Amino acid sequence: MTAVAPQAPGRLGVPIDPSQALRYLQALKEWLVTRRKELDALDAAIVASPHRAQLTRDMMLSMALWKACSDRYELLLVTFDSGRVGPAEQERLSSLIWGRLDATLDPSLVARAAGQRDPKAADSAGSGFAVSLPEACRLSDAMCGQLRTRLALEPDADRMAGRIKALRAQIDRLRDQVALEPASRQAEPRAQLDSLITRTEAITQRHSRGGDVGGLIGPVEIEAATMERDLIKGGVLRREAIGLSARAREQRADLEAREAALRQLVRRTVDSVAPAPKYAVPDVSALGEVPDTKPDLDTYLDRLAQVSQAMQVVQDAYSQALYERERVTARLTGQQDRARTLGVAEDADLTAITTLAQRVLERRPTPLPLVKSLLEAHEVCIDWLQIRTGTQPPAPTAADSTPGATAADSTPGASAAADTAAAANAANAAEAAEATEPAETPEAAEPIISAKQFSQRSTES
């Protein structure tokens, strides 16, 4: 007896009715038991067949599919728990039935069946069977039919009536699979299905008349099994492509929003800073529309990732330019505060540099190299005025250096030490001013030289 995969209830994301789940579990159990007996019989026939080397891989893959379906049945049985199911369990049953089954398959066994020895190839081979439980059952039916067909090349394995019945059932499944194909891609599989239907009907009529169809049914069974396998795999790839398409559209929308924001950032930077960076904002529309097929979607997602990286480079460059202008503005403010602290803010030279720096900063776009040079001159002028005037920053008081300290907490010894330090600082500043003043201002030495000459002349007279 040939097992036929049971019809699964519901669909992905829709809770399964307990009564439907019970009927499906019963039918699935019968299918698993019958399919196991078929596989054992096929295995024994393959061992005794002279074509054992050619059939072993398909047999291993059929065993792997049966094992994956059996493991998923055990999970369904535990989740069903004799009918004690609530809304959460009903949704879990739907996920177990219609979810991906590749995690249950043994990648090494699948790779061996496909003739691959590389571990990475094993992982990719296992991911290639990302099918649901109903699809795995139908795929097992197709592969068992293919094995029976290939073993039927031996005269003692010919059960023509059963093979014709299984072939007609497979044609019905192919009708359902072709109906699920997109309308734009139904022409080719529809023509192939019509050809299979015509040949199957001819075989059935010939067999009913008592004719020999042993040489006719084999190629039809192989072609039907191959077509069913390809349609199931195509359905899986379409579902994966739907997820990739949604992901690509989401990323594209995000990049379009980033593109608009970056163009505003570029305009603002070019209007505010000179020289501005010279990066072009990537044009998302140049990527074209989101494709439909999985290979094209993979390539499209890679290009979206490259555009995102390019946008990040543009954003970093132009944001850094704006930040640099804010930084030099803050630096000028800090140097002005320092000049006021030292009491040199009213110096004519320093005031002129400050006014020039502020006027250059107000330009649009602001020439940053010129502003930086003016700030360097501003800082050098403050340092020179500090040395010339001997002014020191005010020393921190005891209240400033010690949190919570008050005037009452200070001691006479501490006050004396502070006075001594202040006097030493004043003396050092005076010495520095005396040592620096003649070298910095030659005109200051003129009155001293004139006094000496005047004294000499007075003495001579």
Provide a descriptive summary of the structure in words:
By secondary structure, the protein is mainly alpha-helical. Among the domains are: 18-240, no CATH class; 247-308, no CATH class. Helix content is 74%, strand content 1%. It has a two-stranded parallel ribbon with strand order 1-2.
List the helices and strands and how they pair.
Elements: H1 18-48, H2 52-80, H3 87-98, H4 107-114, H5 119-127, H6 133-151, H7 160-179, H8 187-208, H9 214-272, E1 273-274, H10 294-342, H11 348-361, E2 366-367, H12 368-389, H13 398-401, H14 412-440, H15 445-460
Parallel strand pairs: 1-2
Helix pairs in contact: 1-2, 1-6, 2-3, 2-4, 2-6, 4-5, 6-7, 6-9, 7-8, 7-9, 8-9, 9-10, 10-11, 10-12, 11-12
